[in-house]
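C-alpha cells help. One example:
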Amino acid sequence: MEKKIMDIIWHWIKMIVVCALFAIVLRAFIFVPVEVTGKSMSPTIKENDFVVMENFSEIKRFDVIVFTSSDGNTYVKRVIGLPGDHVKYEKDQLYINGKKVEEPFLDGVKKHKNEYVFTTDLDSADLIGTKKIPKDQYFVLGDNRRLSKDSRSFGTINSSAILGQARIVYYPLFHSKIVK
C-alpha cells in the first residue's frame, strides 16, 4: 500500500516537472509575452496591453510585428510594405505597386476621414531612397498614423530585427482579442 502511494506521488512529481519545463519552453521561445507602450497602434492594441508574440510564422502584409530598432527600442507596428514593394499614400489611400489596397483594420479609426487626413501623403521611394523596398526589409506603420514613430521616421525594418508577430492581446482581460 505504501509503495503504491509513493508511485502515485512520484508519477505526479514527474508530470509537474514535465509540464513546467514545457511551459517554460513555450513561454521563452514560442509564445513570448510583450507589454505595449505608447499609443501608436491604438485602437488595435492599446497602451499597457499585453500581447502574446510568436516567432515562427512567415511575415505577410498587414501582420502586426514586434521588432527592435537600431536605437535599441522595441516597437509594435503593422507591416505595410514587403520586400520588392513600392508603397505610396495619396489622399489617405494606400497604393502598393501602383494598385489601390484597402486597409480594413483602420475602419474604426477613419470614421472622420472627411474632417482630416489620417495618413499623410508619402512615397516609400522618397523615404528610403530606392523605388522598391530592399530584400529582407519591411515598411511598417502604426495604426494610429498621426502619433506613430515608424518607417516614415526611421526607414525600413530588417528581417533580422523582427522578434515575432503579435497574435493575442491577453491583458487586460476586458480587451482580450486576437490581433488582426
Q: What stands out?
A: Helices lie at 2-30, 124-128, 151-154.
